Request: fold
Amino acid sequence: AAGVIQSPRHLIKEKRETATLKCYPIPRHDTVYWYQQGPGQDPQFLISFYEKMQSDKGSIPDRFSAQQFSDYHSELNMSSLELGDSALYFCASSLPHQGNTIYFGEGSWLTVV
Amino acid sequence: DQQVKQNSPSLSVQEGRISILNCDYTNSMFDYFLWYKKYPAEGPTFLISISSIKDKNEDGRFTVFLNKSAKHLSLHIVPSQPGDSAVYFCAASDNAGGTSYGKLTFGQGTILTVHP
Reply:
């Protein structure tokens, strides 16, 4: 079965650079969530989209922005990168009003040097 | 402020025995709870969930129990297998607006090791 696809899987950027992560949800899932997991930490909710509109916002820095496109894929844009942004970024998707089952992608490793 | 807590960082169990992973929460608005299994550098894999209107949900070897009055839930794995060795995360959501199911608050995780 198709899963949540994230790209790139690994990314190395320098401080103050910009990075873009992409997420392709499971087919027919129109709700997308972004999470950040720092080293040794639990995943932290960043932002979510439902039907291309932002539905919830968590602890997402102002330097980050995200959007969901007409094909329901989502992109997380991170600017002015800091060393502390180094983390595993997860995307998850679910059917509308069925967050009972939220499926995660494999994650994108961002390393800021 | 850790709203979802898994107080046991690790658990070691013999193959064939029961594994019991515990989770406590403080936010009484949480109405949906999930358990995820995670390997290093991979995404969390959904295991089982429970709504606050239930006190038990079973799926094969996995059973989740919810005690709302104690704000406590547990995941039972019977029988435990070596392939179950992973980090287990408890997560909770407060679906206030109907689109917040996926806004999960995670616990810190418990490393389960099942010995052959």
Remarks:
- The radius of gyration of chain A is 13 Å.
